[in-house]
């Protein structure tokens, strides 16, 4: 399923905020990626598609991978180049990768697979991957089902009510299950889930939420009013204005 173009392009106007407030990924994610792929990232040729501002790209490079980023958006690409000028970036997307056949050991999508047309992106991945290569997809979602953090589930309900959507649409880990489509029939797939958390100022938490496409495409005044109300709600739970965000990373590694 290809997402609405307006949402796909909405990140370009908020690239700086995206880079500043979106969460990173835990080291255990890359340990799991190597384990499921059966090969190390060090010295591997990795193509990070839909790289955005380079949050995942930078971590892949830190693991010793030779990373090439692919990003379609003007704003995101500009931010990437400011943040990671030493890592090569080409413009393009997963539906038509600007890469040679058999040129990558890994193709990674960090929260970007759902922006592709799987009827095109799956064959493109198979074309570009070398024998023994792996396609890795992951989504970093707030763990709304965590019994130790009931406030996250309550927030998800408020967000769903505001956006007029099903609450499930804001559970990234569950949402990821609906985004793999025919991938599991084309490739051998392995899956893992990893839990982690970060403590951030309340305003950082709200700014992170505001960088999600569902909010970016809305009127600024409307979203500002919602976040002001949300801030009041969260101060009841976190009077010190420091929030512990709990995440679950849904990882899928597919091999030809």
TrEMBL record:
Q: What Pfam families does the annotation carry? A: Methyltransf_11
Any single biological process term in GO: methylation
Matches recorded under InterPro entries: Diverse_substrate_MTase, Methyltransf_11, SAM-dependent_MTases_sf
MF terms in GO: S-adenosylmethionine-dependent methyltransferase activity
Q: What region holds the Methyltransferase type domain?
A: 47-136
Q: Which residues cross the membrane?
A: none
**Keyword annotations of the record:** Methyltransferase, Transferase
Superkingdom, taxonomy of origin: Bacteria
Q: Which family does it belong to?
A: Belongs to the methyltransferase superfamily.
Protein name from the UniProt record: SAM-dependent methyltransferase
Q: Which species does the entry assign this protein to?
A: Streptomyces venezuelae
High-level lineage: Bacteria, Bacillati, Actinomycetota, Actinomycetes, Kitasatosporales
């Amino acid at each position: 399923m290809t997402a609405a173009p307006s949402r796909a392009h909405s990140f370009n106007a908020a690239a700086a905020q995206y880079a500043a407030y979106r969460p990173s990924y835990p080291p255990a994610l890359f340990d799991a990626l190597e384990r499921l792929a059966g090969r190390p990232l060090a010295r591997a040729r990795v193509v990070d598609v839909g790289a955005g501002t380079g949050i995942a790209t930078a971590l892949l490079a830190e693991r010793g991978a030779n990373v090439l980023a692919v990003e379609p958006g003007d704003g995101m690409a500009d931010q990437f180049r400011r943040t990671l000028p030493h890592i090569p970036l080409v413009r393009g997307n997963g539906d038509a990768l600007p890469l040679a056949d058999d040129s990558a050991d890994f193709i990674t999508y960090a929260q970007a697979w759902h922006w592709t047309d799987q009827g095109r992106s799956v064959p493109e991945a198979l074309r570009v991957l070398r024998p023994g290569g792996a396609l890795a997809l992951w989504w970093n979602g707030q763990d709304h089902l965590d019994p130790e953090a009931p406030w996250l589930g309550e927030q998800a309900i408020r967000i769903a009510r505001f956006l007029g959507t099903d609450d499930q649409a804001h559970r990234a880990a569950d949402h990821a299950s609906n985004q793999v489509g025919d991938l599991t029939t084309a490739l051998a797939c392995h899956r893992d889930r990893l839990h982690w958390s970060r403590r951030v100022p309340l305003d950082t938490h709200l700014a992170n939420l505001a960088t999600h496409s569902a909010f970016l495409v809305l009127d600024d005044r409307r979203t500002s009013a919602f976040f002001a109300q949300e801030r009041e709600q969260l101060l009841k739970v976190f009077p010190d204005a420091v929030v512990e965000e709990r995440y679950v990373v849904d990882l899928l590694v597919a091999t030809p």
